[in-house]
Amino acid sequence: MNDWIEKPNFIVVEGPIGVGKTSLVHRLAKHFGSDMLLEGAEENPFLHRFYKNPREAALPAQLFFLFQRSRQWNNLSQGDLFRQYLIADFMLEKDRLFAQINLDHDELQLYEQVYERLTLEAPPPELVIYLQAPVDVLMKRIKQRARLVEQKIEPGYLRQLCDAYADFFHYYDRSPILIVNAAEINPLQNEKHFQLLLEHICGRGADRRRYLNLTGFSL
């Protein structure tokens, strides 16, 4: 990892639905005075239909996200990323991860053709914070935040998603990764946990894969 004197300029927070990505991005951005790049799932008009009937709406929901995410990244030139601090709650690579889960064979082939024809320019983050938590914790948080569009999410779908994230980050090597046990570490409500997270974000060292883990939970 880079020997940072201060925090990295470009951070991405990733993880499955309900793990707390966007809330953590808001707190980090406020602390560091950073700009934010947020996924904006609520803008997807097909998402409610997808959670109600995945087979009917998977392809339009996925294509909407693909166009949205590519537009967001392409609106940011690489020069902008080096002139400002930026924290995002998604990375472009995650789009294919969801597509591989949600689309059937023919739909995935069509999606891949569209993906290849888009101009996708997203430089690798200087740090990826990967939040992970067990499915029961994710289901509890989804129910607590009571977003209507998410209430039909099934545990089986979340389990599949968690497995896909774990596999993706097992092989991911474009950026240093900080893997955080978000089931036990609560940087949003626990100040000591937040300070510990900041130490790992700004800390210096040679490891490209580190774990912030208080209870032994890991990949």
Automatic annotation (TrEMBL):
Entry keyword Nucleotide-binding: yes
Occurrences of domain Deoxynucleoside kinase (ranges): 11-200
Keyword list, A-Z: ATP-binding, Kinase, Nucleotide-binding, Transferase
UniProt GO cellular component terms: cytoplasm
InterPro entries: DCK/DGK, Deoxyribonucleoside_kinase, DNK_dom, P-loop_NTPase
Binding site for ATP: G15, P16, I17, G18, V19, G20, K21, T22, S23, R141, I142, K143, Q144, R145
EC number: 2.7.1.113
EC class name: transferase
Active-site annotation: D89
The protein, known as: Deoxyguanosine kinase
